[in-house]
């Protein structure tokens, strides 16, 4: 029973999936602000990726733009200009005109001030007739009254105003003054407020205002309707919501967008429905507007600025537009000039004209183009979290790491694509953040679990084989257990052989303990250099070292790594020689041979015991090259195959063309001297040596001897030059039989 319970409670990919998915579901229901903010950002991206959507065509903008400011003067303009504007729009057939501007202060023009001052001076001194004339003139100069008369005359204007939402902003007002301001905007109240029987709406759900900043009383009385134009950006400054209800005192007020729609629909009733949680919905005519409990609607932006037609007010007043431009249109008057600062941040732009936000809300309502976010979409979100979490958690353990990653990426991309498509085609707002989180979280959790459990198994394998195989081979075996099979693969690799010169003679001079200590010190230093350049230490053969680059791990620069190792071996050997001489120990020299070519690499041996090694003619040639150093008195010899790969990075001199024992075809060999940056050290005498080598191959013995002697004058005791002088002398005395090909045949290994 205990064993079964232990198995039941044991951690597995399924239990991890359940735990992670449950945690994401909890987050979904609590919806922390940070994750909610991320969801809004994904909504912005979906909206922008959808591209521009054409509006219904009922709303246009009369813009206070740079052109108008240039022609009509700086802002604010005289109220008579605005009076001319409303009259002109009425004449051109506009059905409703709204002002995204508030006329809160009297228009104090110079004529009015002069007449007022003159009236004050003449008061009591001038005749009643003169005073009457002054009164008439002053009345004619009152531009506020002129605007009020124009608005009253056209009967199609909705005025804009804004609410004060902070008590600090209205601290200077008395309670009576605040109430008077609300009375001025009385035509902005919802006349029809329906509350379910026996229900008291939650007051905390509403947006509350303390009072308004209305238009001048005379202007307000002249207007047919009014509405507020407050903007409520989210924490990141982006305006995504439009509040359709604000409560001030005991009344509920509508925005400018709904005020204009009322006029456009010939005064269809505007109905506000309340429930215990707050706002249940808003209706105008037969259009039901879905809102949240605060009465906000999410703005379904159609595109960047100027998605709606913009007309410069100077063009309107001068009659430069087609007479039918505004026929039966809703015209919103607002500022778009940068200097007036009525610019907002939206998903499409950080400098979006605020007046177009009202136009967008109106267009959304006219087209019923609302983003759908209801209880059933929340249920769909919940099911998506569960389904995607369990899909990843159940399928992932059945795949390899790479396939699991590809599968998870495919599911993630597919979900994002479907989510975006539903938003673009159906205005369906499905949550993107939490399903993506559950995909990533389950993937990471299951992958970490698999890594931990598999790493535990790998530790067991390492513990069992670390004394028999090198670490790199073990790692390859852990990545791909099939590599434990006998046999190998043919690959292009580089092999290095090194050997101590005269090791037998040295060993006779030392006790066994001293010999072992000296050999271990030498092999440790050389092995460290092999590992420094990620080489595979194939084996030790007494005092000899065999190393391979390019296996078991792929190394495109395997020839370069081997050459760098050889050069550093010589540098390290010089340090050891100085140390041994100071300790009274014998001096040791080494020879290194390097070859690059196709080799068979893999596990060689029997079913009971095998070794990871390389085999083939290219390996044998590398071993022969190490021995060739004895013939030429050199330290590092490389084949023409290695030289062809590394010649741009390392400086070499050609030594000879040789036919090694067991091979019929000759191989050109080179002495590795250093890196190309050190070429100045070798270039002069190497150039002369190569000229001598060319004469040697041509059979011009005396010329070759002269050139090799020049080398010895520069580089005293150069063994290859001395060797060639000896060869040339011998060939002069005993000329070669047959045709001379310049190839030297090795008779020993």
A few lines on this structure:
The protein is α/β, with parallel strands linked by helices.
How would you explain this protein's 3D organization?
The chain is of the alpha/beta class and 749 residues long. The chain is built from 25 helices and 27 strands. It folds into four domains: 9-52 and 373-456; 59-366, no CATH class; 471-673, Nucleotide cyclase, GGDEF domain (Alpha-Beta Plaits, 2-Layer Sandwich); 682-749, no CATH class. 48% of the residues lie in helices and 20% in strands. Helix 2 runs antiparallel to helix 14, helix 2 packs antiparallel against helix 16 and helix 14 (375-395) runs parallel beside helix 16 (433-465). Strands 19, 20, 21, 22, 23, 24, 25, 26 and 27 form a nine-stranded mixed β-sheet that branches.
Give the amount of beta strand, in percent. 15-25%
Task: Determine the fraction of residues in helical runs and give it as a percent range.
Answer: 40-55%
Query: How many β-strand stretches?
Result: 27
Morphology call: elongated
Q: Major sheet: size, sense and barrel closure?
A: 9 strands, mixed
Q: Figure out the total of helices.
A: 25
Average predicted local confidence, pLDDT? 86
Radius of gyration: 46 Å
Q: How many domains would you count in the coordinates?
A: 4
**Low-pLDDT segments, ≥5 res:** 1-9, 464-469
Helix/strand/pairing category? alpha/beta
N/C terminus separation = 72 Å
């Amino acid at each position: 029973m205990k064993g079964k319970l232990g198995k039941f409670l044991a951690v597995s990919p399924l239990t991890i999936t359940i735990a992670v998915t449950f945690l994401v579901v909890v987050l979904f229901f609590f919806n922390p602000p940070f994750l909610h903010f991320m969801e809004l950002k994904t909504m912005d991206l979906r909206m922008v990726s959808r591209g521009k959507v054409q509006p219904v065509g009922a709303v246009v903008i009369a813009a206070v733009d740079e052109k108008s400011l240039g022609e009509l003067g700086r802002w604010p303009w005289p109220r008579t200009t605005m009076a001319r504007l409303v009259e002109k729009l009425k004449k051109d057939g506009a059905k409703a005109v709204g002002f995204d501007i508030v006329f809160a202060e009297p228009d104090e023009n110079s004529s009015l001030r002069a007449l007022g001052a003159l009236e004050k001076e003449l008061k009591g001194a001038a005749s009643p007739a003169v005073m009457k004339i002054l009164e008439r003139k002053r009345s004619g100069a009152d531009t506020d009254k002129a605007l009020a008369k124009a608005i009253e005359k056209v009967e199609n204007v909705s005025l804009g105003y804004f609410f004060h939402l902070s008590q600090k902003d209205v601290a200077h007002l008395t309670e009576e003054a605040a109430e008077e301001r609300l009375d001025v905007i009385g035509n902005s109240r919802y006349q029809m407020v329906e509350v379910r029987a026996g229900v008291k709406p939650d007051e905390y759900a509403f947006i509350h205002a303390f009072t308004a900043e209305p238009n001048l009383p005379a202007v307000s009385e002249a207007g047919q309707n009014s509405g507020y134009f407050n903007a409520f950006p989210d924490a990141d400054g982006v305006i995504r919501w439009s509040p359709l209800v604000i409560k001030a005192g005991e009344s509920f007020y509508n925005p400018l967008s709904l005020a204009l729609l009322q006029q456009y629909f010939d005064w269809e009733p505007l109905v506000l429905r309340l429930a215990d949680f707050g706002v249940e919905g808003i209706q105008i005519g037969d259009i039901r507007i879905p809102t949240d409990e605060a009465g906000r609607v999410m703005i379904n932006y159609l595109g960047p600025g100027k998605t709606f037609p913009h007309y410069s007010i100077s063009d309107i007043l001068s009659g430069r537009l087609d007479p039918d431009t505004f026929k039966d249109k809703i015209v919103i008057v607002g500022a778009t000039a940068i200097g007036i600062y009525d610019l907002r941040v939206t998903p499409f732009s950080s400098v979006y004209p605020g007046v177009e936000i009202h136009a967008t809300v109106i267009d959304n309502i006219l087209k019923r183009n609302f983003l759908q976010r209801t209880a059933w979409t929340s249920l769909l979100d919940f099911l998506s979290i569960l389904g995607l979490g369990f899909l990843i958690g159940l399928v992932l353990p059945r795949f390899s790491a790479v396939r699991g990653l590809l599968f998870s990426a495919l599911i993630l991309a597919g979900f994002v694509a479907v989510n975006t498509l539903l938003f673009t085609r159906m205005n369906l707002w499905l949550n993107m953040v939490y399903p993506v989180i559950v995909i990533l979280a389950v993937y990471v959790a299951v992958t970490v679990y698999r890594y931990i459990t598999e790493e535990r198994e790998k530790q067991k394998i390492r513990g069992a084989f670390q004394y028999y195989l090198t670490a790199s081979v073990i790692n390859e075996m852990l990545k791909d257990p099939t590599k434990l099979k006998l046999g190998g693969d043919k690959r292009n690799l580089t092999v290095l052989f090194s050997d101590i010169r005269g090791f037998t003679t040295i060993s006779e001079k030392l006790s066994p303990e001293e010999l072992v200590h000296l050999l271990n010190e030498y092999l440790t230093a050389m092995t460290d250099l092999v590992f420094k350049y990620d080489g595979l230490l194939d084996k030790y053969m007494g005092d000899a070292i065999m190393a391979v680059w390019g296996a078991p791990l792929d190394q495109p620069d395997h020839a370069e790594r081997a050459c760098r190792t050889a050069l550093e071996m010589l540098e390290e050997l010089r340090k050891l020689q100085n140390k041994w001489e100071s300790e009274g120990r014998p001096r040791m020299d080494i020879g290194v041979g390097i070859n690059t070519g196709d080799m068979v690499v893999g596990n060689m041996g029997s079913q009971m015991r095998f070794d990871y090694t390389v085999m083939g003619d290219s390996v044998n040639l590398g071993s022969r090259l190490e021995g060739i150093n004895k013939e030429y008195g050199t330290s590092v010899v490389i084949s023409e195959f290695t030289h062809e790969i590394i010649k741009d990075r390392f400086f070499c001199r050609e030594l000879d063309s040789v036919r090694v024992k067991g091979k019929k075809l000759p191989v050109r060999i080179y002495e590795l001297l250093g890196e190309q940056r050190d070429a100045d050290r070798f270039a002069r005498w190497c150039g002369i040596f190569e000229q001598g080598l060319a004469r040697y191959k041509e059979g011009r013995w005396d010329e070759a001897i002269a050139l090799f002697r020049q080398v010895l004058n520069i580089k005293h005791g150069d063994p290859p030059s001395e060797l060639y002088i000896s060869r040339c002398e011998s060939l002069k005395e005993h000329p070669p039989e047959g045709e001379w090909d310049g190839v030297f045949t090795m008779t020993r290994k």
